[in-house]
Amino acid sequence: MAGKTNDTEDRIIAATIATITKHGSAAISLRQLAQHVGLTTGAFYKHFASKDDLFRAVTVTLSQQLTAQVMPLLAAADTAKEKLCLLGEQLLQASAAQPHVIDFLFFNPQATQQYQPGTDTTDFPLLTLTRQLIAATLASSASTTPPADFFTQVWSFILGYALLIKNGAAVYDRALLARTLDQMLV
Known about the structure:
Blueprint: H1 7-23, H2 30-36, H3 41-44, H4 51-75, H5 80-97, H6 99-107, H7 109-112, H8 125-139, H9 147-166, H10 174-184
């Protein structure tokens, strides 16, 4: 981010999240965002150098918020597999409640860059948490699936299941989530 750091950046991020929540990320107009928070377009660029810069900051914020929401729930689980299942459940529920936000969080260009193995995900705690739970789940199982493959399997299932639920083609079933995870670990 370029320029000043103050609550203006937080207001821009909040306005962006509000727009994404209602209309999806395709509706984001930097000019409209700037006007919404009382800035000129030029003043906006003092806070975020580009739309990509803004999207990265929004992705980091959403990742932090979702991680903060799930951490207390995960603390109650005993095993890494139970925690991974709980995380999946929370992601599915979030996808049903805020589909545009979850689509943005998982599929905007700033987020998808982070999926590459070896990428530093320090700023993206949800992705870091997911990878940690996947590694711990694999370590406590007899599975020989490489962590990167298991990540893709789990991520694909959760995102695909979320799309089915979102579009009314399936109803959430926690037992299905747990059975599928068990089957992936064989």
